[in-house]
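Researcher: Please generate the 3D structure of the following complex. Treat every line as part of one assembly.
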Amino acid sequence: MRNNLLTFRRRTFLSTVLAGAALPFLPRPAQALNEAQAQALVQAAVDDVNRVIASGASEANVLREMERIFTTYADVPTIAVSVLGPPARSATQAQLSAFTQAFQNYFAAKYGRRFREFVGGSVQVNSTRAVRSFFEVITTVNMRAEAPFELNWLVSDGSGRPLFFNLIIAGVNLMISERTEIGAMLEARGGSIDALTQHLQTLG
Amino acid sequence: MRVLLPVHTSRNTKRVTALLLLASLAACGPATLPPGDQIADRDETRNRAAHEFNLSLDRAVVGPSADSYGNVPQPIRQGVSNFASNLGQPSYVVNNLLQLRLGDAAQNTLRFAINSTLGVVGLFDVATAIGVPAEETDFGETLHVFGFGEGDYVVHPVLGPSTTRDTVGMVVDYVLNPISHFVDAPERYFLTGTRAASGLGSRYQFDGTIDSILYESADSYAQLRSLYLQQRRYELGGPDANYEDPYAAADPAAAAAAVAADPNYDPYLDPYFDPYAQ
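Model: Done. Output below.
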């Protein structure tokens, strides 16, 4: 049994390596997203953010606009499932879509509030680099009273169109932070995804 | 004269030895920074107790004091913060020298000179305005440069989150700080006071973010631990050092091979995990 497993694994490994070596010679699936498109998406998001934080609108209006920006430019469903992590694998489709909807509201409200703190500052797009099948767009947030910091957007078209699926805020990875947060909520509710979804609905 | 000579030589020898030791330590290269979600927390029970204590301290004393300190006009708060930050400069220079980062040492020295004179004993941050920003550092970073890993996550009562390595760094910085060797009590208490006031200023300035982490998180201990470690590693990696590794291993064939080679490999643990890759 053990021997079989070993052979199997070795064979998988070998074929993976072979497939990897053959990759450059195979016809590639149409690579839809390129560097310019990824940067254009972030530029559009950043333009919207800059417009909102310069508008001097009321807090409620700024929040609503930030939520709109998040739902427009972020792939929130993918973020939701990834943040839920391994428990997502055993959830039913209905549970997952209810969780995703609740997470979307929670996420947009929470990060909308965070972005509202940029009021009076501005975000500037610097450069883009390719990572695996996606792109990392590097921007700088210039604040009024504090030192500027780096805000990186990870952009992919895996959902069918270019959207960002992670933010690295001065070295702090949004997905890791949210995984900690959602993980703690789930643990406090005995691992029940339904209870977690209900709780998220009260936060959104 | 004859008697003095050997003493001289031995002092020189000591200096040379110390320099050689420093050079060889710095040549070891910095410690490897763990990925963002890797956490070592062996004293979690004790740390959680310290965290609870800090929360109650923040609720009862620090938060309210910061709120009243917020009533002080902004330019004065800025001046206090600049003054306290300027006092940190000599300590940065000492650490920059130990790290053999001579450019940073020169920059921090220049900053201290500019702000102490043109900036009126450090009340105004003229240096940043003319393009000489602070290169903040501490002995924890020096240890990192010498190749010491961060150790465990530690929460200290009052002082807050740290690591084993950075706690050692904190103690050494306290002893090493050139300012404390030149300033006696009671002036020293005044300096400590400005540092505390500057801390209150930051608590007030970042009120929204700090409150949301401490009081709105599902588990504020876990959230603060994650944020602290990620932020500290980012700081130590400098611009993009810690980014190199995930990208180097970002080849899909290598990722597939990693899964094949390690049945416990969990892509969810990879901070740059690509949720779309199949």
